[in-house]
Amino acid sequence: MTTQENSQKPKEANNSENTFKKIISHAKEYGFVFPSSEIYDGLQAVYDYGQYGVELKNNLKNLWWKSMTQLNDNVVGVDAAIFMNPLTWKASGHVDGFNDPMIDNKDSKKRYRADTLIEDYAAQLAEKGDSEKAAAIVKKMNQLLEANDLKGVYNLIVEEKIKCPLSGTSNWTDVRQFNLMFSTQVGSVAEDSNTIYLRPETAQGIFVNFLNVQKTGRMKIPFGIAQIGKAFRNEIVAKQFIFRMREFEQMEMQFFVRPGEEMKWYEQWKETRLKWHQSIGLPAEKLQFHKHEKLAHYANAAVDIEFAFPFGFKEIEGIHSRTDFDLSNHQELSKKKMQYFDNELNENGKPYGNYVPYVVETSVGADRLFLAVLCHAYTEETVGEGENQKERIYLKLHPALAPVKAAIFPLVRKDGLPEKAQAIFNSLKYDFNIIYEERDAIGKRYTRQDLIGTPFCIAVDYESLENDTVTIRYRDTMTQERVKIADLRSKIENEVSLKRIFEKLG
C-alpha cells in the first residue's frame, strides 16, 4: 500500500460506513426491512421483510430454485421440517462441536467471539502495514482453536493487549465455548418432554432424505437435492444489519457424486455459482473467491464466494466438498444403510458395487444475497446542470428481481385518464406485479418508484385517449419512449423475464 492510499483509507472507510447507514435507513423507510416487533423495541438481530423486501427476496429465491431444479435435469428439491429427531444433530456433530469461543469484557459487559476479536485486531495490524505479524497471530489463533486450547486463546488476547472497542480496556473474562443451537421442549407434559433443536442448518434435512429421494425419483449418481428453508443460530455477536442474524434463510444444494470425483465437481460448481451471481447483476470486480485454510471437520476442500459490502468483502455463498462424512455418520448412528448401488461403473471389469456417495455442497445465505443485491443496487447520482442540478437516489435492480415491475400513472385525475390507466392496469396485473397510482405530481410519483427500484413507469395522457399509446419512462436513464398500449405486455415481459438471466448462464 502506498502512502497516498494509506492516507485515504480512513476517509474511504468512513464513506463506506455512511453509505451502509443510508442503505439500512432506506430499507426501512421504503418498505424493504423492518426491525422485528419494533413497537416493543424490537429483538436484537431479528428482522422482518416489508412489502417490497419480501417481493425482492422471493424473486431471488425463485430464481435460485429454478436455476437449480429447472436448468439442471439431475437436481430435484425437498422441503424438510425444521424440527428433526435430536439424534440427527448428534450424527452431524452439532451437539458436541457446534460452538464458538466467547469472551466478555468486564467493564463494558459486552460479549465477543474471541476469534473475531483477534481477527479484527490482526486486520488493523495489516492496515498499518504489519501484515507479517497479522498473519502470524491468525495462524497461532487457528492452531489454538484446533487444539481447543481456550486458555491459550485468552493468553493470546492478553499478550497482544487487545482492547474492547467500547470500554477501551483489556479486562477480560476467560474464554469459553458457546453452543450455537437453540433448544426447546416437545411433549404435552413437562415431565415427559424431550429436548429437540431448531435446526442450525438445512443440509441435514437433505441428507436424511437421501435414500427417499434417490429411490422414489430413480435418481442416478451424480445428482443433487436442493432446499430453501429457515435455520437458527444463537450467534454470540449478531451485527451488520441482516448479514448475521439469529433466524435466517438458506438456499442449499447437496450434490451426490462418486468417491474420487468430488474435486472435479467441486471445481465445476465453484465456477457455476460465481457465474450465477454475476448473471443477476453483481459485478465481477465485487466478487472474489476466499479459500479456506482451516477446514470444517466434514470437509476436504472449501471456498467462499465473497461480495464487496460497504463493510468489506464478506461471504454470501460457501462451496464445500463434504466427503462422505454426513451420510456415513447417519448410517452409523441410525443403523440404516446410506449406500448407492452403481451398476454403471466398472473397475477392472468388475462391478463397483455399493458405496456411500461423496457430497459437494453449495450454500447461499438468502438474507446475505438480498443484502448484497440491495447494497449494489443503491445508487446516488447527480442529474441536471447549473441551477437545475440535484441529487437522485434509486435502486438499480435487475428488472427480473425488482419487487414491482411497472407503475401505471394517469397524468391527471380527470377527463377519463384514470379510467384509461385503470383499464391498462387491469389488463397487465395477471402477468406482472404492478401498481396503479394517481396521487401527487407525476414527478413525485416517478421518484417514489425509483426509490423502490421499479424499472418502468407508464404515463397515460390525453394522447392516450386519441391513439392508444402511452409513455414509458425507464428508471436507469430516465429516458421516455412512446409505445402502443397493445405492445406493453410483450415489452415488459422481454425485460423482466427470468430468461434474460438464464441466457447468461447458458
Automatic annotation (TrEMBL):
Subcellular localization(s) per the UniProt record: Cytoplasm
Top class in the EC scheme: ligase
InterPro entries, sorted: aa-tRNA-synt_IIb (IPR002314), aa-tRNA-synth_II (IPR006195), aa-tRNA-synth_II/BPL/LPL (IPR045864), Anticodon-bd (IPR004154), Anticodon-bd_dom_sf (IPR036621), Gly-tRNA_synthase/POLG2 (IPR027031), Gly_tRNA_ligase_bac (IPR022961), GlyRS-like_core (IPR033731)
Presence of the UniProt keyword Protein biosynthesis in the record: yes
Catalytic function, reaction form: tRNA(Gly) + glycine + ATP = glycyl-tRNA(Gly) + AMP + diphosphate
Key words, A-Z: Aminoacyl-tRNA synthetase, ATP-binding, Cytoplasm, Ligase, Nucleotide-binding, Protein biosynthesis
Major subcellular location class: cytoplasm
Residues given in the record as substrate binding sites: 113, 201, 248-252, 361-365
One Gene Ontology MF term: glycine-tRNA ligase activity
Quaternary state and interactors: Homodimer.
HAMAP family xref list: Gly_tRNA_synth_B (MF_00253_B)
Protein's UniProt name: Glycine--tRNA ligase
Protein species of origin: Rhodocytophaga aerolata
